[in-house]
Amino acid sequence: MNATLATNTPPSPTSVPAAALGSVSLVGAGPGAKDLLTLRAVEALAHADVVYYDSLVDDDVLDFVPDAAACVFVGKRKGFSAMPQQDIQDHMRNDALAGKTVVRLKGGDPFIFGRGGEELQDLHGYGFSVDVVPGVTSATAAAAVAGIPLTHRDVATSVTFATGHTTNGDVPDLTGLALSDRTFVFYMGISNAPKIASQLRHSGAPGTTPVAVIEQATLPGQRIINSTIDALEADLRTQNIGMPALLIVGEVTALGVPKSDSLIPLAPSPEPANDFAWVHHPMG
Amino acid sequence: MNATLATNTPPSPTSVPAAALGSVSLVGAGPGAKDLLTLRAVEALAHADVVYYDSLVDDDVLDFVPDAAACVFVGKRKGFSAMPQQDIQDHMRNDALAGKTVVRLKGGDPFIFGRGGEELQDLHGYGFSVDVVPGVTSATAAAAVAGIPLTHRDVATSVTFATGHTTNGDVPDLTGLALSDRTFVFYMGISNAPKIASQLRHSGAPGTTPVAVIEQATLPGQRIINSTIDALEADLRTQNIGMPALLIVGEVTALGVPKSDSLIPLAPSPEPANDFAWVHHPMG
Hints:
Chain A is 20% helix and 21% strand. By secondary structure, chain A is α/β, with parallel strands linked by helices. Chain A folds into two domains: 124 residues, Cobalt-precorrin-4 Transmethylase, domain 1 (3-Layer(aba) Sandwich), CATH 3.40.1010; 124 residues, Tetrapyrrole methylase, C-terminal domain (Methyltransferase, Cobalt-precorrin-4 Transmethylase, Domain 2). Chain A has a five-stranded parallel beta sheet with strand order 3-2-6-1-7, sandwiched between helices. In chain A, strands 8-9-12-10-11 form a five-stranded mixed beta sheet, sandwiched between helices. The first copy, chain A, starts with 22 loop residues before the first strand and ends with a strand. Chains A and B meet through helix 1, strand 3, helix 2, helix 3 and strand 7 of A and helix 1, strand 3, helix 2, helix 3 and strand 7 of B.
């Protein structure tokens, strides 16, 4: 399969039997680390003719793409958009009409702040069925590396993922959200952190509520900073936190990984008497 | 490595050099389908001496475990808990003290309604460092198979994952949560669906708000039902929805996959003139 981009004269769809149509998959690449791709995502990449990928995808992930396929960067670098959203959609559609196997590779999960919905709607509007491959969303990856349970018995019965930067550059309305037994994760919230802190206070959260900042979760530059709603703005400035980074807000952040590596194992507890688990050994 | 469960007489930790200690990983197995495991999860399973797994993990996933390892079911079947939470923690700790490589395999992500936080705290308390491997959480998997973007430009700026069944069997306080531009996903909410519907209405959501019910997402028995807050209770009864199932509430559910397979591709749009994407071809 020729892997160049679609030409200006794709075949007329009325003359194309369904079997000749290509396909489009919206694939979540996970938070960055190559081994946090799912097996299904790897399989999709291994069969791609063309991969459109964005800036939240680590370049290592593209190792799974065949040599003959084209990898097209369509994200933002240094504030510069490599390709407008409408053009991405047009390219994918035309490539699929030309019979190609198209993968749209998105950082995290395609349906959490990935604009996957817009691309899906566009492709559905043109009659394509689209496979969506879910991915590990950045919030759960950040929580894992920081040892912060996003929900926790008696501490947090819900977790909200919110954008820290809406399409008009603002913070979403947080009215009524902040209760003590709720966890919040803000994606893309670093530049708007002062506004987020202000809205959280306005919504009823104490300024002492703990906040964890996780920069470049799962990547070599990973950093974890502990702060509070009141101290957040100053801490971000002092620590010079860059993107990508997430904010986790709530009492669960106080349960995060102990900072000391010098913990000594204590005596084991007695073997539990209740031993009626179903043990399969060896595996069939 | 002998793969039987820890004996009643693990070595005293004071006599165990650090290098002889085993390790514990809390690993997310994803929503069920075997190929939605991450590469890192597969790697962890391939090196396990003992795997403690719960009922949200599809048995196929255990194919990745070596034949010599023990797989211990510790979840619930037919309302019967195979092992109390404290016993699971005691077993894991004792196995690790005995030098074993322990994997705690949890459906979805370990830190979203998986009680991973409790296990992490317990193990930290005994001085173990614990690896947490994030997984695809059931909400994003259900959204993917139903074609429902959990967030969407101008429609939903946040998504909240809430338990539909707190430790006392109730529904969490949803006060202030229901605004029209927010999406909600309820885990384990089927038995409490009437209470959830009532709380959402009380919180300000119109009874006509669309709800999608996704049963056994990514598994062979998968079903997707479209309902509304007002119709939910009757629809669940009529359709005889069982567990596991998720509720997705909000306007985004109306964007879900079109039900017809008979859509005809329309004419492609003109090739976009703006063609300054960074094309790598072939891959190095």
